[in-house]
Amino acid sequence: MIYLLLVLGMGCRPLANQPNNTAAVPASSAINQVKDPEMDRFVNDLLAKMTLEEKIGQLNLLAVGFDVTGPVVSKNVDENIRQGKVGGVFNTFTPTAARKLQEFAVNNTRLKIPLLFGYDVIHGHRTIFPIPLGLSTSWDLTAIEKSARIAAEEASADGLNWVFSPMVDIARDARWGRIAEGSGEDPWFGAQVAKAMIKGYQGNDLTQNNTVLACLKHFALYGAAEAGRDYGTTDMSRQRMYNEYFLPYKAAVEAGVGSVMTSFNEVDGIPATGNKWLLTDVLRQQWGFNGLVVTDYTAINEMVAHGVGSEAEAGELALKAGTDMDMVGEVFIKHLGRSVKENKVTEAEINQACRRILEAKYKLGLFQDPYRYTNESRTAIIMQPEFLAAARDIARKSMVLLKNKNNALPLKQSGSIALIGPLANRQRDLIGNWSAAGDWKQAVSVEQGIRNVVGNKVKINYAQGANIADDEQMIKRLNAHGGNLDIDNRSSAAMIQEAVRVARSSDVIVAVVGESQGMSGEAASRSDISLPGQQLELLKALKKTGKPLVVVLMNGRPLALPWEEQNADAILETWFAGTQAGNAIADVLFGLYNPSGKLTTTFPQAVGQVPLFYNHKNTGRPFGGDLLDKYKSRYLDVTNEPLYPFGFGLSYTTFGYGKPQLSKTAIKAGESLEVTVAVKNTGNYDGEEVVQLYIQDLVGSVTRPVKELKNFRKISLKKGESQEVKFAITPDDLKFYNSALEYVLEPGDFKVFIGPNSRDVQEMRFSVQKN
Ligand code: BGC
C-alpha cells in the first residue's frame, strides 16, 4: 500500500517538547515549532499527489452514530468516505465499528488516507469520573492526569484516536450550564488542570496505541457568554482576555495540545471560527500552535446567523482565518471548490489546512498502521478494577464539605438513616452530562453505595420526598435528551408527608437533593440557581422533625443555598461523581475518607450577584462594610460576600496555620523569594489540606485584581502532625499584560496571602525594586 511504502523507515517519535514559554506578546514563534523533516517530506509527497477535491475532502469531519449535539446530522457517511470526501468522523466507537469505516477509507480511496476518529470523551470514556468541575475541586493534579490517562486508555482501546477535551473555558457565571464542563473561575488554576489533562491524554508519544490526540476547547472566551446564556455573545477587553481568559488556552498550547476547537461565540465582533486575529495572530503566531484547528459543531454554518454573509462566504472567512476542519456543517466540501475557481480562496490556503490534518494523522501513526486503534483484544482493559478504583478515589477527593455543624458528619456505622430525596437512589444522573460511552446502569447509587460500605450495620429507611423538577416543560425537555426522569405523580404534599414520617422514625436524615444531570452542560443554562422543584420545601419539612439534617448535593454548577447554609447540619457537595459515585459518597459520609475538596467556583448567596468571582478588581468605591455608606459598589438587598468563597472546603479535622514568613521583603526585578508557613492538623482525624497562595499587585499601569491564585499545595497530615510548606514566588508570578499587551513585571509593592481558601487568609507585603 502506498502509505506504508511512504512511511518506511519512520520510527516512533515523541511529541514536540515545548519550552515553558511565558513570553510577552508578540511571543516567540519558536514554541511548538520543533521541526520534523521526515513528517514534512511525507506530507509534502502526499499533498503533491492529491487533487484539489481530495484535499477539500480531508477538511470534512462528519458525525456518525448517535450522539447529536446540534440540529444537523451527517448523511451518507459511508458513501462519502468511500469517495474520499471525509477526513475524520466522530461519535462512532468500538474497534469493530471504527475498523469498518477505516477500511472504507483505506481500501476504497485512491490515496488510502486513514480517518481520524473523534469523540467527546470529557470525564472518562466508559469508566466515568466526576464531571470536570468536580475533578477540579479535588485540587489533585496527579489524580486529574490519571483520570485523563485512563480515559485515553479506554478510548483508544475502543477505536478512538481523538478526544474533544479538555474544555478550559473560564466560567464565572453560575447560570451557564457549561460551567460543569470546566475547571471553574480561576485562570492560573485552569491552566494547571489543562496541562495535566493534556499530559494524561497525549502522553509523550502520540504514536502509541494507548494515547490520543487532545482537543483544547472552546477557543475562545466561550464561558463569558452574556447573561450566562449558552452560545451568547461575549465582548471583553483585550486586557481581560490576555490576563484572565487566555491563560488556560495558552498553557494548553505550551503543553503541546494537538488540536484546538473554535468556539460558537464571537470575539471582538467576529465569530471565533472566522476570526483571523484569534486563530492565526494569537494562536499560531504569538503562541506558536502548529496543530489542527477544528470548528465546533456546524459553527461555520452558524456564521450566517451571526450575520457575516452567505454560507460560502462564511466558509471562505473561516478558512482564511485559520480554521482547518469543518465539523458536520459540510460548508467546506460544498463550497470551497467553487471559491478557489472564483479566486476567493487560494489552493495554497487549502493545502495549509489539509497539511495540518495530514500531520495530525501522521503524528498519531495512522499512516504506519491505520488500524492501530482497532485492536479488539485491547477492549479487555475497559472498566478494569484498577480503573474503577481510580474513579472511586478521585470521586471522593472531588467532594467538598461545605458545612459540618457539631460534627454531624461522619455518620455512625450503626442505628438508622432516613435516606430521602429524588437523587438518593438514582443512577442516571450520577455519571453526569457528556458521559461519553458511560453506561449509567453501571453507576453505583447512593443507596447502593451505603449498603456496599456499611452493609447491614445501618438500617436505611427510604423515601423519595420530591421530584427533581416539577416544571413540565423542563421535564419534557430533559427527557427528550436522555434525562430519564421518572416523575412520581403523587402530590408534593403527600410525598413530603411520607418523607417526614420516615425521618421521624430514623436517627439522622441524609437528604440527597440537587439538579438532574441535564440541568447543566450544553444548552442548559438556568436563570434560577436554587434547588429545583419542591426540594427546598422538602428540606424545610425535614428540618421541622428536629432530626440532624445532612444534605448531600448533586449539581453541575454553583447553587444559591442560603436557607440550606443556615439550617442544615451538614452539607456535602458531590457534583455528579461518576460510575463510582455512590461508593465514594458513602466512603465520605461514614468517614472512610476524610473530605479534602475545595471549591473552584464561588457560590453566591443569590443569583443576582452573578457573575461573582474572587479575583475581581477593587473599583474606586469598594464597599467597606458600613451599611449606611450609600455610594459604594454594592447591592441594597444583599452583601457582596459569596455564600462560599473560591478555594473553600472543610474537613472532618481542623488545620492550624502558623504565621507565614517571607524570605525577603524587598527583591530586585527578576529575583525570586520564598514564603513559608507551618500547617498543623489540630483535629481528630488524619486529613488533607490545600494550602493556597494568592498575590496582589498593589499598583499597576493597569489595575490589578484584589487577589490572584499563584500556587497551592495539597498536603496530607496525620492527626497532630505539622508540616512546613514552602512556596517560591518567581518573577512570572508577578507579571501581567499591560495596556500594550506586553507581558511585564512592574516594580512596586505586592501583597502575598496564604490560607485555606481565598477569604480566610493571612497577608504579608514585599516590594520589587527597580534594577
Ligand atoms: C460542543 C462541543 C463538542 C461538539 C461535538 C458541540 O455542540 O460545543 O463541546 O465537542 O459538539 O460533539
Automatic annotation (TrEMBL):
GO terms for molecular function: beta-glucosidase activity. Its EC number is 3.2.1.21. It comes from the Bacteria. Residues 689-758 form the Fibronectin type III-like domain. GO terms for cellular component: periplasmic space. It is an enzyme of class 3 (hydrolase). PROSITE patterns: GLYCOSYL_HYDROL_F3. The keyword Transport does not apply. Pfam families: Fn3-like, Glyco_hydro_3, Glyco_hydro_3_C. Keywords: Glycosidase, Hydrolase, Periplasm, Signal. InterPro entries: Cellulose_Degrad_GH3, Fn3-like, GH, Glyco_hydro_3_AS, Glyco_hydro_3_C, Glyco_hydro_3_C_sf, Glyco_hydro_3_N, Glyco_hydro_3_N_sf. The keyword Nucleus does not apply. It is found in: Periplasm. Its main location: periplasm. GO terms for biological process: glucan catabolic process. It catalyses: Hydrolysis of terminal, non-reducing beta-D-glucosyl residues with release of beta-D-glucose. Gene3D superfamilies: Glycoside hydrolase family 3 C-terminal domain, Glycoside hydrolase, family 3, N-terminal domain, Immunoglobulins. Belongs to the glycosyl hydrolase 3 family. This is Periplasmic beta-glucosidase. The lineage of its organism: Bacteria, Pseudomonadati, Bacteroidota, Cytophagia, Cytophagales. The gene is bglX.
